[in-house]
């Protein structure tokens, strides 16, 4: 599989420059806040979202100051939601580092997330980029609605596939959609905004289904399943498919495990096996690849370039990554 460093090649210099922009966008005169934002920057991930912004922008035009601001907006929003998510989930770790709430407690973590969201607003207004603000604000709304819809539906374990896709479209895919739309708009390619938003949304859906599959292993190479989603009573695509397609006895057993025995390692392993045996993983994998191919079709009318090639490689990476 292509390495992330190879995918970054056409925008390597821009990503280095982006680091400066992003660091500057998080600065504060409050020493505690500055200390926490430095900690956040130090533990950053693979920069997937800025990569979608910059590759889209470079594929369609010339990267400029608007592109850097758009990438900063998206990354600030993403970081704020992660900080808040860790509080909501009472998580002590994020990417192998202690979470903000684990080190500085919930109250400070919530305030840090609020501060980052305020920086999204201020960065947009200071640069008079109201179109970028609209794109990001839509993503915030979608993510909040998706999270609440998931909470509402998960209590009953009666999620249909359409509802599942609505949840992940809002909760996960909306942010990657915002990255690609903002990238197009930042280089003045408004006519590509809708196409790139749809492209990003489909990548986001594929990305989430891949995460679902990780919980059970993967077709042909069932690694060590984690079972985390079952323990957290999350309704994922392999589980939904199995609940809808399996016989009454299997369905009853699965519901019983998820509702009442989700903290038992033995029962969780049993649930994983039931989902695998009833084709839940194979179905989710097939669905993921279908959606990924639909996304790549949206790029076909766009001229070939190193940036387009890297964007395609980034799409392939999202569905073939090993974690």
What this model shows, in words?
The chain is mostly helical and 323 residues long. The chain has 15 helices and two strands. A hairpin with a 2-residue loop joins strand 1 and strand 2. It is globular and about 60 Å long.
Name the descriptors.
15 helices; 74% helix; two-stranded antiparallel sheet; mainly alpha; Farnesyl Diphosphate Synthase; 323 residues
Averaging pLDDT over every residue, what do you get? 85
Radius of gyration: 20 Å
What sequence of helices (H) and strands (E) makes up the elements? HHHHHEEHHHHHHHHHH
Number of domains: 1
CATH class: Mainly Alpha
pLDDT < 50 runs, ≥5 residues: 218-223
Strand content: under 5%
Structural class: mainly alpha
What is the fourth-level CATH superfamily? Farnesyl Diphosphate Synthase
Globally, the shape reads globular
Q: For the largest beta sheet, what order do the strands appear in spatially?
A: 1-2
CATH topology: Farnesyl Diphosphate Synthase
Report the helical percentage: over 70%
- Contiguous helical run count: 15
CA(first)-CA(last) distance: 13 Å
At CATH's second level, what is the architecture? Orthogonal Bundle
Number of strands: 2
Largest sheet: 2 strands, antiparallel
């Amino acid at each position: 599989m292509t390495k992330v460093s190879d995918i970054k090649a056409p925008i390597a210099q821009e990503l280095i420059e982006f680091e400066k922009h992003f660091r500057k966008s998080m600065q504060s005169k409050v020493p505690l806040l500055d200390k926490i934002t430095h900690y956040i920057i130090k533990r950053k991930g693979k920069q997937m979202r800025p990569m979608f912004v910059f590759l889209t922008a470079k594929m369609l035009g010339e990267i400029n100051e608007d592109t850097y601001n758009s990438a900063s907006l998206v990354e600030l929003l993403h970081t704020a939601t992660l900080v808040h998510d860790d509080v909501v989930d009472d998580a002590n770790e994020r990417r192998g580092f202690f979470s903000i709430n684990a080190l500085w407690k919930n109250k400070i973590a919530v305030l840090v997330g609020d501060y980052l969201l305020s920086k999204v607003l201020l960065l947009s207004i200071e640069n008079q980029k109201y179109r970028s603000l609209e794109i990001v604000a839509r993503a915030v709304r979608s993510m909040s609605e998706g999270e609440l819809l998931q909470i509402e539906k998960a209590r009953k374990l009666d999620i249909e596939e359409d509802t599942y896709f609505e949840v992940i479209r809002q909760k996960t895919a909306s942010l990657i959609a915002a990255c690609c739309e903002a990238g197009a708009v930042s280089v003045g390619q408004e006519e590509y905004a809708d196409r790139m938003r749809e492209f990003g949304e489909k990548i986001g859906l594929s990305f989430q289904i891949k995460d679902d599959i990780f919980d059970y292993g993967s077709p042909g190479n069932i690694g060590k399943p984690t079972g985390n989603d079952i323990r957290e009573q999350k309704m994922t695509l392999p589980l939904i498919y199995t609940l809808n397609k399996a016989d009454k006895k299997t369905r009853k057993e699965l519901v019983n495990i998820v509702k009442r025995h989700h903290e038992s390692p033995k029962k969780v392993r049993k649930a994983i096996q039931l989902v695998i045996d009833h084709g839940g993983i194979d179905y989710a994998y097939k669905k993921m690849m279908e959606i990924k191919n639909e996304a790549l079709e949206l790029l076909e009318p766009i001229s070939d370039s190193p940036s387009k090639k890297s964007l395609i490689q980034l799409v392939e990476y999202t569905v073939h990554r090993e974690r």
